[in-house]
Amino acid sequence: MASEAAKETANPGSVRPGGRTARVRSAVLRAAGDALAQHGLAGLDLADVARRAEVGRTTVYRRWGNPVALVADLLVEMAEQSLPRTETGTLAGDLRANARLVRRTLADPRQGPLFKAVIAAATCDSRAAAALHRFYETRVDEWAPCARQAVERGELPPGTDAREVIRAVSAPLYYRLLTTAEPLDEAAADRAADAAVAAARAGAFVTTAE
């Protein structure tokens, strides 16, 4: 059996420890999220995170080593804890539920700045970028069955790329978050969902791959 020290030095997110190690990881990642939301990536300091989490600095430095590795592990946890998809029985209802979930996350006073910070991290570090890609792949995988079921019900044309449908829902919301100061309200979420539905029904996402 691997020693506790070996677990501590494993790559972030590669181990699913229990007991004290799990509690320490949870506290540190929560503190890291708070720090990112308040100060952004430039203000993320491992010593400050250790203080916030009330754990030893050595533990944080040994396990994560640098702020980007901490961001990467935070994304792993965020993907694991994301809410499951909603099934309403119609594509329009499902995609509106998806869009409203994304909107609530991005409009949240803590989560919105947090996502901006992790996106910034992904632009300058390959590990953070890989973690961000895994996070969104996990979310797309969770919601893609909504579009596949719509194809089976005859709501969408055969050959529709279900994953592209889901990506089309959240893309306008992220664009609005990152490029404007306009509020992310429920109306914006519904418009994004409705636009994705209209495009999908028109065959915009039909590919030869399916």
Automatic annotation (TrEMBL):
Q: Which Pfam families match?
A: TetR_C_11 (PF16859), TetR_N (PF00440)
Domain named HTH tetR-type is located at 22-82
> Which spans are transmembrane here?
none
DNA-binding region(s), residue ranges: 45-64
Chaperone recorded as keyword: no
Against InterPro entries, the record matches this protein to:
Homeodomain-like_sf, HTH-type_TetR-like_transc_reg, HTH_TetR, Tet_transcr_reg_TetR-rel_C_sf, TetR_C
UniProt-annotated stretches for the region Disordered: 1-21
Is Lipid metabolism among this UniProt entry's keywords? Answer: no
Q: Which domain of life is it from?
A: Bacteria
* Gene3D superfamilies per the UniProt record, alphabetical: Homeodomain-like (1.10.10.60), Tetracycline Repressor, domain 2 (1.10.357.10)
What keywords tag this UniProt record?
DNA-binding, Transcription, Transcription regulation
PANTHER family linked: HTH-TYPE TRANSCRIPTIONAL REGULATOR RUTR, TETR-FAMILY TRANSCRIPTIONAL REGULATOR
This chain belongs to which protein, by name? Answer: TetR/AcrR family transcriptional regulator
Q: State the organism of origin.
A: Streptomyces vinaceusdrappus
